[in-house]
Specification:
Length: 279
């Protein structure tokens, strides 16, 4: 089924920058119950799989409190931590608006929740993915600065038609990233942390290629939309991810990769440093 929340221009009630009022009272009792069920199931499953920054962020934002969070209550806590805020948007928004929001410390969150019948999988990023998956990491000052640097790089990538190449950095870190922590692997990507089964798969499955983060390798690696990834990239620290993103001049990389073939998901590449389970 095609994604339902994709628009060519802001629909009625949505501003030119694609933001809209969250209109918290619109959520029904059934939607609040679905949220509670999602949070309860996912929180229980993340023990030993999610990185420390994510678990600390859950506490800071009090996302386990019953009911869909009201942004009016959530934003002061997020702002105190890192100066970020979450803004409601109708669904997937254009790249230029998305990058501008990130570069100015605003995280766009889809203003709808998956149905109770599809708890395990939402074909589009929904409120649970965006709030539960992404926001806790934005309470970490270093990760928060990394996402600002990424947003600024995105604004520039738009101008030189290199969004797809840069976007693979986002996919392999912000969505599906792993980190080495406490001599083990932990998840920090929102695509993982909002999905019980893929978190377990990414961190524990034996037949997965886990590759030490290398910027150019990441930006040259394809990913899968509708199935679990076969390659995951492992960062050594958020400091390193921030440094690489903030200090790299991406344009020479875009030029080098413009006509280069992509590495298929799970494919080997000369020079890969594999991170083994139990590191
Ligand atoms: Fe996401």
């Amino acid at each position: 089924m095609a994604a339902l929340h994709v628009y060519e221009r802001p629909p009625e009630g949505v501003a030119a920058d694609w933001t809209m009022p969250q209109n918290w009272p619109q959520f029904t009792d059934a939607e609040h119950r679905t949220w509670d069920l999602l949070v309860e199931r996912q929180s229980r499953a993340l023990d030993g799989l999610a990185c420390d920054a994510f678990l600390t962020g859950l506490d800071i934002l009090r996302l386990s409190k019953p009911g869909i969070p009201d942004f009016a209550e959530l934003n002061p806590r997020l702002a105190r931590a890192t100066g970020w805020e979450v803004v409601a948007v109708p669904g997937v928004i254009p790249n230029d608006a998305f990058f501008t929001h990130l570069s100015e410390r605003r995280f766009p969150a889809a203003n709808f929740l998956r149905s109770a019948e599809s708890l395990d999988y939402s074909e589009e990023p929904d409120l649970f993915h965006d709030l539960f998956g992404h926001l806790p990491m934005l309470t970490d000052p270093v990760f928060a600065d990394f996402l600002v640097a990424y947003g600024k790089a995105g604004v520039k990538a738009e101008r030189c038609s290199s969004v797809d190449t840069l976007g693979r950095l986002y996919l392999h870190t912000v969505e599906f990233g792993l980190i080495q922590e406490h001599d083990a692997l932990r998840a920090f990507g929102a695509g993982l942390l909002s999905s019980i089964s893929e978190t377990v798969h990414a961190v524990t499955a034996p037949d997965v290629r886990r590759i030490a983060f290398d910027l150019e390798r990441v930006m040259q690696t394809d990913y899968l939309f509708d199935e679990f990834q076969r390659s995951y990239f492992v960062i050594e620290s958020f400091d390193h991810l921030l440094k690489v993103t903030a200090e790299t001049d991406f344009e020479p990389i875009y030029k080098r990769l413009r006509d280069a073939p992509l590495f298929a998901p799970g494919a080997a590449c000369l020079g890969d440093r594999l991170v083994l389970l139990g590191v």
